UniProtKB/TrEMBL annotation:
It holds the Pfam family Peptidase_A22B. It comes from Trichostrongylus colubriformis (Black scour worm). It comes from the Eukaryota. It is found in: Endomembrane system. Belongs to the peptidase A22B family. The keyword Secreted does not apply. Keywords: Hydrolase, Membrane, Transmembrane, Transmembrane helix. The chain crosses the membrane at residues 185-212, 232-254, 261-283, 295-314, 347-369. InterPro entries: Peptidase_A22B_SPP (IPR007369), Preselin/SPP (IPR006639). This is Uncharacterized protein.
Amino acid sequence: SFVFLSARNRDTGDEVQVCATYQQYRIAQIAPDVESAEPVGLSFWRGRYNETRICPLPSGHEETIRYNGTAVPILYRIDDDGTECTHNYSKGKPNHQNAGQFEVSELEKYGAKIAILLVEKGRSFMSKGRDYLFSDFYDPYINITEAIPTFFLYVHVFQKEIMGLATNRNTSQIELRFHRPSLEVAVVLLSTVIMWLLAVGCIVGGALWAFFRHKAGKDTLAVNAANADVNNAINILPIVLLVFFVAIMVIAYFFRDILAFILNVWMIIVGWSCLYTCTTAVLSYVPLGGWLQSAIHFTICMLSLGVNIIRFIYRRSPYAFILTDVINVTLCLDVATSFRLPNVQCITVVMIFMFVYDVLMVFGTPFFMTRGCSLMDELVSGIPCSSENTEPYPVAPIDTPIPEPFPFIMQVPFVDPMVSCVDLDVEKGFKLSILGLGDIIIPGILVTHCCVMNGFSEYNRIFYGVLCSIGL
């Protein structure tokens, strides 16, 4: 819902750009840039300089004032001053929820073209949250289809930035333009492309690493098994997977935060091992020997542990996804060289099972859940898709508990041209695109298997590996 508000003093040429939120962002678009945005003037309620209180309502000659298509700023919340005008709309009164609609209707009645509702940052007004501007902020009681364009702006920003342009208490020279950069398709897909590159990089990188280890005779994993063992594995594998994943989902559904915490602790150990293994594997191509090699390996070991401990401590930070992704990349690469399934038939069974499992958990569960929610989305995000909260106002993330994050997922922030408006102290994080490691590791097992199959020439193994990679 964020938009830019560009304000300019036509006489002095001074200009500022601030962030606001747009009430009608779900149903109406605004200009994509400042040049194409329609300029509007700035007027004050009842014709009084810097008057931002809706009450008292105009009386006498003030009732003849019309705002001639300008924007009028009004304080969003109404304080009870003892008058009938404020009595019904102040905090704790039956109609306090309709204060925004009342203000917008009054402004429209007197000819205002745009309503600017001024929000006092952090003010405690609702029973379950405070007033903040954030990405999903809007007033659910303002009729978005009938109301004039309505924007929300912090009071201190308006007084300091916008009113700072006025000279000699004259606001007639100030013009306002509201705009929001449009999202090009290529920009929208950028986060998807980055996620795809991460996934494919892990799969192909792990397969190549396994290929060269196999070529150098370092691959000690058995890639062929007796037919009886293979058949037994194929027969019991779906049952084992079914029991395991259903158990995980049940535990996560009833004890999500406990499971997520345990997984975060476990990631310290797993991530430590994987980060150390991948780093030392790269350094193995550097000729080192004796005490120097031991010292470097010990240093890498301690640094790997330190990185994982730091990630655990700051796992709720908005930027925690960076370290999490780095560790998960090393995990995917390490699994490619340390885990095998007996043959393609066994791998096919696993991939079909995981495909059906993902489809059911993501797209099937909304048809069975009473709230119509995706069980997988709820468990991964930790945020219910519909809340039992009786407070209809959207509550800022700063006033809601941050769920324990699941560690074994890749995360890439969505590309947003309004990211400069995001207050991380309020939002507590970026909006992220996520991908489970299973969607990387399982295809990676197939590609890696093709690259290390016994009984085939190097050329054929590379050919089959490339052929499987094309399907990614």
